[in-house]
Amino acid sequence: MFGHFQKIQLIRVKLFQRLGIHTLFFSSKDKRLASSIKMIIGRKPLNLSLYRLALTPAGLGEETTKGFRISNERLEFLGDAVLGAVIAEHLFKKFPYRDEGFLTETRSKLVNRETLNDIGIKIGLKTALEQVISSRQFTGNKSLYGDILEAFLGAIYLDRGYEFTQKLILQRILLHMDLEGMISTVTNYKSKIIEWSQKESKAVEYKVLQVNGNQRFKEFVVELNINGESIAQGKGGTKKKAEQEASKNACEILNIAV
Q1: Does this model's pTM top 0.90?
Q2: pLDDT of 159 higher than 80
Q3: Is 227 left (phi over 0), alpha (psi -120 to 50) or beta?
Q4: Mean pLDDT across 109-118
Q5: How far apart are CA 212 and CA 216, in angstroms?
Q6: What was the pLDDT predicted at 113?
Q7: Beta-sheet strands, E only, within the chain
């Protein structure tokens, strides 16, 4: 994941950390923040400024002379990608016989804003944020700590590398996710459409419009008709997957609660 220069930088910073050099220039406020971060990630930060930035929501960001607001939004983008990759790999290995639709929906449920917000509070980000904002007045949105958690993971990735971040997510973040409970609620959209059609006395038909590709790699295009009217289409590597995709799209169009 790192180039030669980045590896040398990481080795140098780790040497400074081992010798305690990087903490010599910390103010008492910095030391308190570094201590809070250590409680969260299990290690003292190598680059404290990354974590301070991760704890700076857009509402608290200062604007530069060039009009750029310094906040955690870029780190949030990075952390979201790292978290998604780690969770995707974990699910891929844990469920070797489940299809792409199941894996995608399970990952989506695990990393939704409400879940991440609760985890952010549980692991101590509220305390760390209070140390950064100090006495400044600030009212965050309802997903504040979920956003900060993603930014924090982005900071950890830059500070410690992918392997450390991966281990932390699997051992400390995933611990707070109710994986089994979420799996039990993974939606079968086709069943939802069938249930709805029975209540509404509607006739449902799935029609294969196209089969693209060759014998090894096929893509099915399926159309969902209700009372003879085309409602939605879906694509997938199997007819079943395409029907699920079409059903999911139809649920959104028809406002069917899932």
Answers
A1: no
A2: yes
A3: left
A4: 87
A5: 11
A6: 84
A7: 62-63, 69-70, 204-213, 218-226, 229-236
125-133 vs 113-122: helix axis angle to the nearest 10?
80
Parallel, antiparallel, or unpaired for β 229-236 and 218-226? Answer: antiparallel
- Indicate whether 21 pLDDT > 50: no
**CA-closest candidate to residue 160, choices 52, 45, 37:** 45
99 is catalytic: no
Note every long-range contact of 39-45, with CB atoms under 8 Å and residues 24 or more positions apart, other chains counting.
39/124, 40/123, 40/124, 40/125, 40/128, 40/152, 41/156, 41/160, 41/168, 41/172, 42/168, 42/172, 43/160, 43/164, 44/17, 45/159
pLDDT digits (tens, 9 = 90+) for 86-102: 999 999 999 998 877 78
150 is catalytic: yes
- For the chain, helix (H) and strand (E) counts, in that order, are 12, 5
pLDDT tens for each residue of 195-204: 888 988 989 9
Pairing of the two strands 204-213 and 62-63: unpaired
Say which of 80, 159, 223, 243 is annotated catalytic: 80
The pLDDT value recorded for residue 138 is: 59
Of 76, 150, 159, 243, which is the active-site residue? 150
